[in-house]
Amino acid sequence: MKLKRAVSVIIILVSLCSLMTGCFDKKEVDELGYVIALGLDKGKTNYLKLTFQIAKPHAGGESGGGGGGGGGEPPYSNITVEAPSIYAGINMANTFTSKQINLSHNKVVVFSEELAREGLEAYLHALLRGREFRPSMYMVVSRNSAEEYLKGVKPELVLNPSKYYELAFQSYSYTGLIPNSQFHDFYKYSESLYKDPVAILGGIGSFKSSDDFSVEKSTFRERGHKVPIGGDFFAGTVTKTGGVDTENMGLAVFNGDKMVGEMDGTDSKYLLLATGEYGHAYWTIPDQKEEGKFVLLDIKQSRRPQHKVKLVDEKPYIDVKIILEADILSIQSTVDYEQGELTNLLEKYVEELIGKEMHRFLEKTSKDFNSDICGFGSYAKKYFLTWKEWEKYNWKSKYKDATFNVDINLKIRRPGLILKTLPSVGSEGTEENDK
Question: What is the pTM of this model?
Answer without folding.
Answer: 0.87
